[in-house]
Amino acid sequence: MESGIQLEMNFEPNRNRFRTRLGSGEFFLLFEINTPSRQADMKAAAERLQETEFAVSAITALPAGLAITDKYTAADTAHICDFTAALAPGERDRHLYILSGRDCTSRNMRDNLKLCHHAGMHNLLLVSGNAAPGEESRQTAARHYCDSVNAIHFAHTGYPEELFVGGAVNPFKYTPDELFGQYFKLVKKINCGAEFFVANFGWDMLKFQELRWYLSNRGLNLPGIARLMMLTPEKFESIAAGKIPGIRISPDFQIILQNELKYSFTQFEAAQWRRLQLQAAGCRLLGYNGIQISGVERPDKIRIAAARISEALEEFQHFDDWSKAYHEHLARAEMAPYPHRFYLFNKLFASAHPETAPPVNHAQLPTVSRWERYYYELSRFMFAHAGRQSPDEHYYAKRLLVGCSRCERCRLPETCFICPNTCPKGLSNGPCGGSRPGGRCEVAERECIHQRIMRLNRWRNSLDQLEEHYIPPGN
Ligand code: SF4
Q1: Which of 8, 54, 291, 456 gives 20 to 30 Å between its CA and that of 32?
Q2: How far is the CA of 50 from the centre of ligand 1 (A)?
């Protein structure tokens, strides 16, 4: 049998079944369940969570667990620890908990890590968090966000043995700047202590493969989970309308989905099951250790999903058979969202895992403008020592030139003199996963500031900083 490279890891033999599974190389399933809004009936939500957990633990075909999201579906969700209190304490080590940095100061994040640690929620995916659904950029800017890199650093330094921490990455980026921004930030997360990664949703399997190749080319063989979505007509409409941050559907794929919708809901659903099967089998062959499935929460659907995925794993044991079926299923549709279609490697899909380093595609990277150079040199002349000065020093000049918010610790010299607080989420260690096509900000009508920071770092020959230099919070 030809299967994906499942990576051998040497973990402590303490009781953490999620960690053990990731290390064992046995392919596994995680079913995503969202923490409800504060207004929801918590008793009913807790009962639903228990039923879902029961359904997941009854799966025998494959190892399975839950992935419990935080602040994902509503602007104001209950605290994840209140929600997960419904889980039996002895079972919590089977699951993954996705802790969001939205509405979190650094202190709140440290408190949340402590709560998770005490509650036995030791497997954490730490993310910066999406903007709340439907809000405007000034509302996003009024919230606090804890950068995922800072959160990983807090977890790793505070609980190096107890917490098992991962980082998220969005490989579905189709311009070089956007893609490298994601990859560099993932490497920074790994440098700060992330021990596994979760790749965000997408239907373009070339991008899942590209990420795997990129990491193995760099010798970063950490375990990975691919996040897959079971589409409903409503979700398809929201994604097509650009309402779900960081998720894109190409025009060709939209036509396929519209055709599937033409006849009946049953036909649409059947097509989505088949797609989920193909993606799951592909992820296993491409070397992912498991998948995290969104949109399958009801116990009956969980049972169906587990059975179908297990059938697909049986059906596709060889990469060539799988890639033929994948292409036929998609009728060779273009999965990159026109006009952007950058893939880092040439010959993706020629094999599951190349024997030698795969050929790399030439990246057309934008250059810094004369204005950007001038601005950089002027700021460097004026604020080169801002990191060691009091927040009041040069305050008015900083406010005029970069929109200073008087942080206790100025980070301008570490971010090419672009203030991280001009990012609506205030992220300083790299971009979030939600940017829009062409590197537009997830929430504001302008370019993501981290693209500008990357351009300047490239011009200064200091791209390594984007992976290696950890930037602590400003306050
Ligand atoms: S500026 Fe970049 S990192 Fe900040 S919210 Fe916008 S897209 Fe995300």
Answers
A1: 8
A2: 36
Question: Both 396 and 445 in a single domain?
Answer: yes
What CA–CA distances, in Å, run from 99 to 133, 135, 246, 367?
Answer: 17, 20, 18, 36
Residues 325 and 382 in one domain: no
Which residue's alpha carbon is at the smallest distance from atom 3 of ligand 1?
431
pLDDT at 3 over 60: no
Write down the pTM of the prediction.
0.94
CA of 435 to the centre of ligand 1 (A): 6
Instruction: Give the chain's count of helices (H) and strands (E).
Output: 17, 8
Choose the residue to mutate in 432, 436, 440 for probing ligand 1, maximizing ligand atoms within 8 Å of C-beta. Answer: 432
382, 458: one domain: yes
Banded pLDDT at 320 (limits 50, 70, 90): very high
**37-51: pLDDT as tens digits:** 999 999 999 999 999
Roughly how many angstroms between the first and final C-alpha of the chain, as a whole number? 53
Instruction: Report whether 72 contacts 111 (CB < 8 A).
Output: no
Nearest residue by C-alpha to atom 8 in ligand 1: 432
Residues with CB under 6 A from ligand 1: 423-425, 427, 431-432, 434-435, 441-443, 448-450
Tell me how many domains the chain contains. Answer: 2
Q: Which domain holds residue 109?
A: 17-329
Name the domain boundary from 269, 301, 329: 329
Ligand 1 centroid to Cα of residue 75, in Å, is 18
Taking the C-alpha atoms of residue 59 and residue 294, their distance in angstroms, rounded to an integer, is 17
- In tens, the pLDDT along 427-449 reads 999 999 999 988 999 999 999 99
Radius of gyration of the chain (CA): 22
Task: Find the 183 Cα to ligand 1 centroid distance in Å.
Answer: 15
| Residue keyed to tokens 């053990």 | 20
Residue 155 shares a structural domain with residue 26:
yes
Does 266 share its domain with 405? no
